[in-house]
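Fig. S4 source data, part A: sequence.
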Amino acid sequence: MDPLVAGQIVVAAAQDLLFACAAGTLACSALCARGEPSGGASSHAAVVERAHASAGSPGRVRAIALIGLMLACCLYLWLQAAVMSGSTFSAAAPAISVVLTQSHFGAAWSVGCAGAVLGCLGGTRDSRAAWWLAALGMLVYAAGKAAASHAADTGDFTVREAVHVVHLTATALWAGSVIVAAPLLWRWRRAAAMPPMQCEAFCTRLSHLATLALVVVIGSGIYNAAQDTAHLSGPLLDAWYGRVLTVKLVFVALAVLLGGYNRMIHLPRLHATAIEGGDAYRDAQRRFDRLLSVEAIAMIAVLIAAAVLGHTAPTGG
């Protein structure tokens, strides 16, 4: 494999992970703020503030992820300019303006990078306006990323491209919420920052969000896979694209099994023990957190496989 292409895959995987982390931070901050507080609004606000203090400001984490995403976009553009011009990485600077102004990739990249910049404008604030600004920026980023993918092979503003935007957004929500929530719950448990009832409510809402996002991921993923593999001339596993897709699906299946087990086994135990707390609750929370951490690792593997898939020709043998 060309070292420049390998570099593109690494940077693309970093972009996917940063995008998922930003989406996960948005999701987890919304899940913390949602729900009926048991001790009044002021009591609930105090609990949320204490939880944020133990886990770090969501606005700061979100801003770091989005700034990292913007920088990764710039690095990817440089690599793409080197690949398209046939030059080395160090000599690719003159080709950047040509790529931006005279290629479809340049137009798509401009949209995606503009979305990352828009998301960064919210800064580290935890306000509702900053949350919505970041969400809008990430949606624009997903549109640009879809326009630069295999989904744009038949043109822009198509159903296929729109479905891919939905797929990218749902995947980021599913993966990101799990990846962000795993260390978040661990820190809450370590610092005893969240009361059992509210922690259990957060885990329940997290499970509902992940399940809903998963349904959208599966539906849009089936459509994407059918479109991408429609022109394969032989068996799926005979093509490099088919083999990478299979690896990705294996990790997706693993994540689904882990999430399903957590939802069906450990979440009911959390619900049953949260009222009284004590050792039974702590044991149930520890088991839930442990399985969520393994699911987060599986989701990282899914994102890496997706980056490889995005740099593999569907018709390649």
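Fig. S4 source data, part B ends here. The two ends are 15 Å apart (CA to CA).
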